Amino acid sequence: MTALFALATSLLWGLADFGGGLLTRRMPALTVVVVSQTVAAVVLGALVAATGGMGEAGPRLWFALAAGVIGPIALLSFYEALALGPMGVVSPLATLSVAVPVGVGLTLGERPGLLQAAGITVAVTGVVLAGGPQLRGTPVHRRAILLTLVAALGFGTVFALIAEASTTLTGLFLALFVMRVVNVAGGAAALHVSVRRGAPACPGDGFPWGSLPALAFVGLADVAANGTYAIAARHGPVTVAAVLASLYPVVTALAARGFLSERLRAAQAAGAGLALVGTVLLAAG
């Protein structure tokens, strides 16, 4: 069950990143984040009301609140690092986020077997290669590396916090709702500051209502991925769940290949293959 839900997490996050990347070509990234997360918050609010999730309120919601605060900081750091570039360095380096939940799992006493340890090594190597690492060419801005490391630490911390935010399904709905409300509040504040500084919140012809379904998909896929990861981490080793869930860059690369006909570099193709091998080893272990 852990492998199934963790792989579902990778699929959902990979498609959400792909959709978000396409949308940011037409509107500011902050607008994409705020609108997509608002849709997710509304849907989650309805689920909480329908399932009586407010009755699950308790100390564990502090984990959800912390994840909601850290998530946007990590995301904005990652976006700024991508802007500084080169992306071929920033994207693979961000996969270091998996070290946080894996470290937590090891601290809690998890000890992967030999087959699982091999799977973790192979899968993480595959993810780094699937990101299309740039090993030469444009010099790397020191600030870009620092921001990427901040983003990786933030993403990994959110991974760990999500796993601790609830113990029941209704509690999970409430925890995800709290995270999204905090995300929207933080994103809206950042968007407000951006607009005050003169940056447009929407394209020149106003809000693209035709993009609302795509924005909704991005937000709902993201929140569903959070949910499937929480379930995966609850039903099996966090080390395995975290590594399998971190395969989403492979999904994003393959989606770009399938929908946009983008050619995969040799390193990316090799990375996708290694990620698949690592998945098999982890599932077999």
From TrEMBL:
Regions that span the bilayer: 28-49, 61-79, 113-132, 144-163, 169-191, 212-232, 238-259
Keyword match Lipid metabolism: no
Keywords carried by this UniProt record: Membrane, Transmembrane, Transmembrane helix
UniProt KW Transmembrane helix keyword: yes
InterPro entries according to UniProt: EamA_dom, EmrE-like
Matches recorded under SUPFAM superfamilies: Multidrug resistance efflux transporter EmrE
Record Pfam families: EamA
Domain spans labelled EamA: 3-130, 143-282
Family membership noted in the UniProt record: Belongs to the EamA transporter family.
Protein name, as recorded: EamA family transporter
